[in-house]
């Protein structure tokens, strides 16, 4: 698979996170020549928070994480790539339990402190023997770097996705590092992929959960590649506390706000990397909706536009086909008035008050559409609700990847 | 554009409908060498019923028809192809009024007895001079055949779509003929295309409306090509009464039931023809959902499957990827239990009770997927709700048509 044309030039330099020890190993879930099991070990006292798919058919990993999240503490994370273990019945549940037990036994932790996520084909039980051998191999290695971990959690991704933030909290340097994988079955009914954030900040689980949920709303829940929501979507944040900052116990605490902002910013960067690696993507599209009756309504209208095959193919064709944007607004099922609607591509207003802007300058629109980063602005003229959603265009590449794939 | 591989071998022989006089003419809405204006004249006393798009941004034609439908009578229908006149503000409204006035003046009818539908590019006001010249030309010709009319209402369609039914009502032969056009921006928030049914039956408007709404639910509202709902969707039925049957005044009348069944059957045939001409379609997919908590819930689950790009590309690739069907059930937002779910392709059960059927015979599944008509069956195991929805696969053809199109 060719590297996405929207990929960053290189993987960033990511710092170590105190209290986190990451390793990768080759479990061999598929016949490929790469590491496909990632193991992260956390120091005792690590807080955890998470958001998982809203799919009614979640994987056993998602169910396991939901239960474990209630306790708020973590000692390890195992990520399997190449097999999602979703829709595998009792055998799938047994595989997750076996993984948690294996790691818990090795590090003298509780199984409920071991988080598990898997990604890949649906319907094939994860082979327990391969998982256990992979865990043993990972335990026997020394730490891997973040790029290796970002590569080991990937499936159809064409580049590794990682980002970091640093800030000072109560005189202590705090680090956040995140890695994520895409890149199909991406729709924002929460996260629709796997993403993990690691920080050495001291944050209690409830506060971490509140900040993560807020960060998710403006990042992983605001992206879509194909409108298809995965059964395995998982976003987890681990806070080891090794930085020694005064522990964040609630959102009102000193330092909570800048930490939450750094977390939200990091999540948005990771989410945009996922869109940049959307299957077949050649352009990144930002849809800004304003003037809706509420932020929620704006979000749904933005998603209707971002998920429309006709809008996405028009952008692929560099076609300023704003009529398709009107169509997508109209079908969203949200309050809208045709004769109040205004639409722009980039900075150029192309439609206003229910019809085309007479004689608008097509040159800047054409130039904007030839770029790799496209902005579609829609003002509904109804209220003050606003939302931004990111997606990519729909190209022959998406069809090739998904019609030629054999399960 | 090549004729769809799913097209019928030929256009059917369609009988004349007493009381209906159809003509076509060249208005020249686009630079093409074909008729693009259709005019149907009805004898006085013709009843009319209709269903229009639920888009919040409907075309002025749709708004005109909605108002005129309240009166229940029709004397003429004008269909313009190549320009939808949608999102054109006051100038678009004036074009519709001018068309109605021109025809009304020529046949001594009320403007509100003239129905108007347009299809094509969004955002360009329909040129009134071309419309008026086209109407005059149509009035000066003699009647066209149904295939000519079906061709004149088409846009990106690759074949003409028509069907007929005959029945006896109170000793009188009754005829129904329908024509329709697709083939992109097809999603079932009613009809998402233009379809017209003509009959010589005597049916009062309210009864006709009730029967048409019911027919629509199982036909045009049960198809999707790309999940994109048009701003111009219009289904109209005209009943001239020339057959001389005892007038159907309500659904309880003698003859109402067989007529309603024939109408529903005709609408379904037309709707399936629209799917068979879905942009880039190579396979017709029937999604049958059973065991839902209600018929409405089954319908929404079926649409979630039928609109999933990953399901549609899997079928294009002849891949029995039932994991993607699980995904689409899971994201539908409807009551579902992973461990009760059963899935089949054709007659072969591939998954049951939340996991794959161990060792199911893959040969009949592969053979079924190589065919042109694919059946996906999903039983949710929750209740007795059921629904059937039709769609087509998602291929490179769809991308080519829609990314290469310039507005």
Automatic annotation (TrEMBL), chains A, B:
Pathway: Amino-acid biosynthesis; L-arginine biosynthesis; N(2)-acetyl-L-ornithine from L-glutamate: step 1/4; Amino-acid biosynthesis; L-arginine biosynthesis; L-ornithine and N-acetyl-L-glutamate from L-glutamate and N(2)-acetyl-L-ornithine (cyclic): step 1/1. Its main location: cytoplasm. One of its GO terms (molecular function) is L-glutamate N-acetyltransferase activity, acting on acetyl-L-ornithine as donor. The keyword Transferase applies. Its EC number is 2.3.1.35, 2.3.1.1. The active site is at residue 192. It is found in: Cytoplasm. It holds the Pfam family ArgJ. The record marks 191-192 as: Cleavage. InterPro entries: Arg_biosynth_ArgJ, ArgJ-like_dom_sf, ArgJ_beta_C. Belongs to the ArgJ family. This is Arginine biosynthesis bifunctional protein ArgJ. It comes from Sphingomonas jejuensis. The lineage of its organism: Bacteria, Pseudomonadati, Pseudomonadota, Alphaproteobacteria, Sphingomonadales.
């Amino acid at each position: 698979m060719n590297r996405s044309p929207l990929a960053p030039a290189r993987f960033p330099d990511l710092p170590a996170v105190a209290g986190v020890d990451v390793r990768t190993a080759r479990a061999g879930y598929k016949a490929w020549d790469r590491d496909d099991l990632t193991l992260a070990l956390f120091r005792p006292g690590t807080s955890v928070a998470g958001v998982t798919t809203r799919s009614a058919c979640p994987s056993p990993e998602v169910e396991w994480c939901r239960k474990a999240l209630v306790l708020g503490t973590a000692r390890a994370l195992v990520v399997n790539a190449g097999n999602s273990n979703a829709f595998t019945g009792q055998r799938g549940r047994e595989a997750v339990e076996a993984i948690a037990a294996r790691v818990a036994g090795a590090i003298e932790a509780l199984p409920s402190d071991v988080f598990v996520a898997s990604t890949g084909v649906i319907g094939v039980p994860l082979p327990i023997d391969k998982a256990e051998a992979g865990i043993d191999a990972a335990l026997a290695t020394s730490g891997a770097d973040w790029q290796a971990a970002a590569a080991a959690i990937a499936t159809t991704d064409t580049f590794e996705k990682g980002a970091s933030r640093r800030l000072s909290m109560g005189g202590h340097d705090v680090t956040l590092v995140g890695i994520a994988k895409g890149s199909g079955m991406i729709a924002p009914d929460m996260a629709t992929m796997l993403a993990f954030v690691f920080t050495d900040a001291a944050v209690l689980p409830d506060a971490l959960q509140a900040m993560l949920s807020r960060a998710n709303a403006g990042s992983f829940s605001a992206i879509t590649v194909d409108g298809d929501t995965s059964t395995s979507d998982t976003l987890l944040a681990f806070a080891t506390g090794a930085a020694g900052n005064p522990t964040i116990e609630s959102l009102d605490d000193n330092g909570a706000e800048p930490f939450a902002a750094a977390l939200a910013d990091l999540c948005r960067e990771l989410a945009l990397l996922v869109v940049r690696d959307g299957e077949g993507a050649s352009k990144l599209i930002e849809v800004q909706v304003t003037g809706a009756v509420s932020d929620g309504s704006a979000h749904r209208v933005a998603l209707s536009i971002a998920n429309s095959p006709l809008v996405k193919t028009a952008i692929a064709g560099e076609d300023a086909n704003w009529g398709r944007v009107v169509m997508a607004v109209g079908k969203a099922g949200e309050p809208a008035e045709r004769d109040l609607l205004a639409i722009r591509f980039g900075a150029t207003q192309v439609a206003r008050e229910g019809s085309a802007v007479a004689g608008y300058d097509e040159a800047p629109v054409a130039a904007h559409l030839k770029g790799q980063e496209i902005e579609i602005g829609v003002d509904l003229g109804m209220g003050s609700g606003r939302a931004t959603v990111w997606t990519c265009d729909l190209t022959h590449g998406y069809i090739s990847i998904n019609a030629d794939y054999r399960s």
